[in-house]
């Protein structure tokens, strides 16, 4: 009899343990990777990298803006989750803590907050400026001035603010007139030259068994008698990841409806989107990254030849800018393309937007003088990158210059208004109009 009691108690104990394991609010280390809405500290370098016996001559930085609020349309969609919060019933299989978190969830953002830098975003850039100032004292050894330090931002408020807080911490100065790109500046203003294609792989993946399983699991855990629409699940996902990016130690209410497998599927969905819109899935994206890489190479070339030029070059933009530069430099390239059909095979992929372009992501390059020889190291989110062609992280400048000179010297690296998406659309419209006009004359030639 005692043996039976012991067995029953063990079964009950294990069941309770399994149930508690499912409780998101008891998870000390929840899954942190949310594609381009990942918090910077989760993926950035965990140590400071310096080069002994090397003096930095020039630092070139391309930074995405810091953590921001959702856009106004996303805010509106997240606000609509109140309907599901209010209708949550005991049919849900959420643990008590997760259930109560959703029932008491409050969302205070309004459309006027859309896309604005938040407190975490301010801290992202303040801390980046302080770290770089400490690591590269030879670069930041003069008071800020626009000749010694070249600064440029896109005209979006979140990018301007990011530049402001970076300079504030790096130089202890308030620069209120942040230089902004001109409309024809192709280093950062790449959106007018993007070729927008339907992302068929993303569409297919959203109809795949992986995404259907996410829909079923989330609907079931909420105790619903019907499956949620994918757009609603995406709103829950956005609520989860935006709140998590603001408070790194938080347990956002809507995160509780997702398993780690769900979050990995949703991350892959985002990676597919960026792979084709800004990555290797579209050959035009390498070309879009050419002007910014050309700027990097030309700055280092001038400095290596002791020509006049800035000690620091600091650009502030968006995820598309960082992605395009990474692609043109050839980092994070998988031998197998990301497809809707190979999610399981690509779990260890290099193209992970969580690592490549979280909030405050950056691509940095440093030109060094190392015992009389010029050398270069590239960094993505402060992590040194290996140049695969040479197998080096601290690479001879002459090798890097020779490697990229054919690219930046190519005519395809030059853009003009005839290359813009607006011009292409206009040209396409004209062609279609002429085709229809010709067909009209052929059909009605008897009347003319």
Automatic annotation (TrEMBL):
Its EC number is 3.1.3.62, 3.1.3.80. Transmembrane segments: none annotated. Disulfide bonds join 54-370, 240-255. Residues 1-18 form the signal peptide. It comes from the Eukaryota. GO terms for cellular component: plasma membrane. SUPFAM superfamilies: Phosphoglycerate mutase-like. It holds the Pfam family His_Phos_2. It catalyses: 1D-myo-inositol 1,2,5,6-tetrakisphosphate + H2O = 1D-myo-inositol 1,2,6-trisphosphate + phosphate; (2R)-2,3-bisphosphoglycerate + H2O = (2R)-2-phosphoglycerate + phosphate; 1D-myo-inositol hexakisphosphate + H2O = 1D-myo-inositol 1,2,4,5,6-pentakisphosphate + phosphate; 1D-myo-inositol 1,2,4,5,6-pentakisphosphate + H2O = 1D-myo-inositol 1,2,5,6-tetrakisphosphate + phosphate. Keywords: Cell membrane, Disulfide bond, Glycoprotein, Hydrolase, Membrane, Signal. Its main location: membrane. It is found in: Cell membrane. GO terms for molecular function: acid phosphatase activity; bisphosphoglycerate 3-phosphatase activity; inositol phosphate phosphatase activity. InterPro entries: His_Pase_clade-2, His_PPase_superfam, Histidine_acid_Pase_euk. Belongs to the histidine acid phosphatase family. MINPP1 subfamily. This is Multiple inositol polyphosphate phosphatase 1.
């Amino acid at each position: 009899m005692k043996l039976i009691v012991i067995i029953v108690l063990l079964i009950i104990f294990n069941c309770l343990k399994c149930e508690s394991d499912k409780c998101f609010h008891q998870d000390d280390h929840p899954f942190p990777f949310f594609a381009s809405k990942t918090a910077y500290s989760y993926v950035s370098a965990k140590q400071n990298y310096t080069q002994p016996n090397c003096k930095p001559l020039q630092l070139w930085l391309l930074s995405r803006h810091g953590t921001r609020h959702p856009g106004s349309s996303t805010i509106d969609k997240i606000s609509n989750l109140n309907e599901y919060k209010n209708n949550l019933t005991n049919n849900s299989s959420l643990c008590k803590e997760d259930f109560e978190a959703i029932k008491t969830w409050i969302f205070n953002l309004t459309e006027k907050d859309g896309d604005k830098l938040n407190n975490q975003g301010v801290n992202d850039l303040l801390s980046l400026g302080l770290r770089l100032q400490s690591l590269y004292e030879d670069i930041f050894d003069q008071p800020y001035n626009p000749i010694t330090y070249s600064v440029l931002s896109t005209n979006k408020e979140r990018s301007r603010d990011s530049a402001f807080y970076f300079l504030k911490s790096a130089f202890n100065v308030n620069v209120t007139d942040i230089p902004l790109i001109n409309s024809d500046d192709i280093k950062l203003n790449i959106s007018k030259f993007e070729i927008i294609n339907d992302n068929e792989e993303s569409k297919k993946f959203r109809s795949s068994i992986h995404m259907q399983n996410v829909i079923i699991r989330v609907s079931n855990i909420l105790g619903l008698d019907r499956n949620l629409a994918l757009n609603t699940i995406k709103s829950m996902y956005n609520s989860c990841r935006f709140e998590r990016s603001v408070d790194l130690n938080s347990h956002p209410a809507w995160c509780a409806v997702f398993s780690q497998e769900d979050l990995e599927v949703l991350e892959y969905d985002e990676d597919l989107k960026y792979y084709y819109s800004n990555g290797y899935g579209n050959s035009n994206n390498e070309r879009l990254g050419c002007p910014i890489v050309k700027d990097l190479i030309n700055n280092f070339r001038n400095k290596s030849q002791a020509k006049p030029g800035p000690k620091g070059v600091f650009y502030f933009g968006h995820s598309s800018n960082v992605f395009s530069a990474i692609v043109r430099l050839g980092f994070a390239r998988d031998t197998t393309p990301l497809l809707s059909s190979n999610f399981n095979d690509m779990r260890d992929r290099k193209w992970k937007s969580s690592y490549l372009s979280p909030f405050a992501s950056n691509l940095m390059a440093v030109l060094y003088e190392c015992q009389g020889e010029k050398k270069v190291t590239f960094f993505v989110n402060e992590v040194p990158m290996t140049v695969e062609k040479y197998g080096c992280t601290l690479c001879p400048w002459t090798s890097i210059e020779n490697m990229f000179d054919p690219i930046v010297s190519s005519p395809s690296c030059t853009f003009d208004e005839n290359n813009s998406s607006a011009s292409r659309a206009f040209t396409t419209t004209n062609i279609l109009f002429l085709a229809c006009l010709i067909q009209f004359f052929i059909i009605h030639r008897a009347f003319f």
